[in-house]
What we know:
Elements: H1 17-20, H2 31-35, H3 47-50, H4 54-69
Function: Binds as a heterodimer with protein bS6 to the central domain of the 16S rRNA, where it helps stabilize the platform of the 30S subunit.
GO cellular component, one term: cytosolic small ribosomal subunit
GO molecular function, one term: structural constituent of ribosome
Amino acid sequence: xxxxxxxxxxxxxxxxxxxxxxQQYIDYKxxxxxxxxxxxxxxxxxxxxxxTCARHQRGLxxxxxxxxxxxxxxxxxxxxxxx
Length: 83
C-alpha cells in the first residue's frame, strides 16, 4: 500500500525590506540596520529568515563584512565563556 504524503501549506515569502524602500545601496556605516540581520552570536542571517532578495542579500553580506573590518560591528556576538 502506498504512503500518502501530506502537502505542506503554502507560506508566503516576506517581501524584501530594501526593495520596499526602493533602496539601491546598503550603507555599511548604518549600524542599526545591519544589527537586524546579524544574530546574537554574530552570524549573518540567511535570506530565508530575513526575507531579503538575492541581490540585496549579497550587498548586505558585503556591508556587514565591511562594518566588521572597520570595527562598527563585532566579529563575535555577546557570548560568555563559562568556567
